[in-house]
Amino acid sequence: MTLNDDPHTARRARMEELRRAEQARQRRGRLVVISSVTAGVLAVAGLVGFGVYEFGKKDGGGSSDAKAQGSSDPNASIAGEKDWDAKKLTRNHVTTKVNYPMKPPVGGDHDQVWMNCGGNVYQKQVPDMNAVHSLEHGAVWVTYTDKASAADVKKLADKVSKTPYSLMSPYKDQSGAIMLSAWGKQVTVDGADDPRVNQFFTKYVQGPQTPEPGAACTGGLDEQ
After folding, report:
1. Which residue windows does the record flag with biased composition (Basic and acidic residues) (predicted)?
2. Are residues 79 and 196 in contact, defined by beta-carbon separation less than 8 angstroms?
3. Most CB atoms closer than 10 Å: which of 13, 52, 155, 187?
């Protein structure tokens, strides 16, 4: 097997390409001219930050065996994960309120504007219809209730802030204290150190379930 045949290598290369594209969109939107030296520094810093996310080496807590179990195989099934048939999750842009059958929602009709999901950590609950659009673009959405510990919330916020195509927000009506959602996928975890957190991120950030891979996660709706 050659290097190009390695699915892990190909996935990392794809994520790095998407990250560079997101950074380019941000620069164009702000009309900021960055010198070649500064751009090189930012690129290196971005790749280092992405490397921390990809391998889940610094997300803290738990045994090394547990961490490896949660991130060693991106194709492995995730214990307790709920799945919805992607063919039945409609993708129309609508202006009327959608009553989703699950909380938080994992797909369906949604607002034409997505929530910014370039590692955004929101302090207030965000609109379902905008967050669903983010999932359509390949984001992972971390949500939590007031039953989640402050330590877990902080660790998860640190992880999200380092991860392109992710967002985090409180969600008072969900069944679990901490839940992770992607398009058509959802799991309730025991805490920030649960190995399924790394596994879910590795598998579903711009994962195969994504209806619109590579679509923007910036330039949308931000916290009001």
Report:
1. 1-25
2. yes
3. 187
